């Protein structure tokens, strides 16, 4: 009996903290700030950021009309070179494909530009075979095969394009949506879209591709989310609460799981943040637009 | 034989009713072990004022039957006025069918169970135990409509006669706004669409199935034909074919171009200015385009806005409106729904669609005191917290308000100042 009680206590004291660990999959500690490029030209309202598993960080330095490239290795930032091409005037969102090519959404031209890993312009992504043909991209994401998922607010749909831009499929927005501002892909191949106005995430399952509400009552947990992220290392969904200056974490079931960071001006705080990315170490990189900087946080979990 | 059968059925029904009432009364008598003859009279011994209520023309059936314990418990209750259940639920325990199944709209007092906002639970001189008669009752809550009705030049006859001509006071399964029928069906109940004068007024366009309230204010307006007070020029000049195909075509109501492209034809200056900007308001780029916020025909609001700016902007930016509502100090433009005082609703080169690139200049357009006496702000003063930022009004205030005085983000001024002046931190 005595050994049973002791064994139970042992199990409880060791497993309970692990349970807590699972319940809150993101715990951030401020690591570093990027204020400018290698020449110390300051960032100006950066809205986009992308990371890869080699430590590369590409920043959309929006109001300077350029990209800035850094490498994060062993918690040390290197590089800071500028990428400026005349075909991209107002970069707002960035993604990297499996070959290191840089995809940039130009918010003014409303086009997705492709750049080589070295930063040379390689052309615009032109959707082919799309009907109706008018496409107004608001955001985009890439999958593991480098297919492009384009959030087309003009056509009220998500377009799935192959790397050359050929249409593979399209999913119309749900009825009575508010303002769709971002999309994300789950590791299972489902597509998520974020309705900022209704504080709702919709899901289109791979086997039944039409959007249905995935979350409920999120307005109790966030102010106005404009960006959404999923990663291959976790089934959690991350929403960037622009007006609240925080990251809201949802579980794979769409339920609220936690909230990290807060609004402010000091290091570690956010002011109208935009895109975020997470690298292989779990470090979180955030385009802190209102503070004209990019901040890096390490994930203690 | 037929007469006998009818009489038999009638007598049977009467007997059952009588038995039912009797057993109800007996049930209550038994329940509370009332003295013989006390039912329906005992309460009046202490509540003599009810004698007057019983004399009114319309008395609630349980009151008329002396069944006070139908709603009240004579001994104890967890609810006010010794009610048998929550005041918001007790009426529905008998009146179960007032709210139709799958309603499209429910009157708020009904949804809240606040029946007594309109009805007296005991008796009234008015039918259905209403507190007041006719529009007087409705307009007591709908005050802004009352003000409008008092001022408008062209009145809609059914409104004068009574709100219940068009609205159901409890709920509607047909349309929003408690309408008894879908808008068009309701209107054509009176306005015959095949009359030559109707057809001529509508420029021969087949509007019989169109939504009448996209042009006409059903409560009346200052314009002939009760058109909304703000009318799109092609409508007021009867140039429907500027946007729609000809009335004689096979598809007369079809618009000539899709979405914003149709509007661009006339509003090219606005479009050129807007599409030349770096940041555009997303709804303008959506499929609905301009019609996300504007009505194409006529509207109550200036600029043909679908709603007042506070409601319209708040339909997407609810968090901002909510924050302002909770704010200790109100920022006048937000409070008044004048969002466009600071933001361009179409496009801007600045983040958050601010009207000016400089926050200081934007705030100074109203707060001119800052030009002569202020904490150092402007492009020359770097924010000590972040060398990429300069000091401006938003370094210390949040323009849509906070829970603290002066729209400051901290409870105490010292918390705010020591953000930068760290040497004074205690």
UniProtKB/TrEMBL annotation, chain A:
NHL repeats: 267-300
Transmembrane spans: none
Gene Ontology terms, MF aspect: ubiquitin protein ligase activity; zinc ion binding
Pfam families cross-referenced by the UniProt entry: NHL
GO process terms (BP): proteasome-mediated ubiquitin-dependent protein catabolic process; protein polyubiquitination
Keyword field: Repeat
Record flagged with keyword Hydrolase: no
Name under which the protein is recorded: Uncharacterized protein
Protein species of origin: Geomonas limicola
Automatic annotation (TrEMBL), chain B:
Bilayer-crossing regions: none
Keyword vocabulary terms for this entry: Signal
The keyword Signal belongs to this UniProt entry's keyword annotation: yes
Residues annotated as signal peptide: 1-25
Pfam families: Paired_CXXCH_1 (PF09699)
Span of domain Doubled CXXCH motif: 60-97, 107-145, 156-195, 206-227, 232-270, 281-320, 331-371, 392-425
InterPro entries documented for this protein: Multihaem_cyt_sf, Multiheme_Cytochr_ET, Paired_CXXCH_1
Source species, domain of life: Bacteria
A Gene Ontology molecular function term of the record: oxidoreductase activity
Record NCBIfam families: paired_CXXCH_1 (TIGR01905)
Name recorded for this polypeptide: Cytochrome c
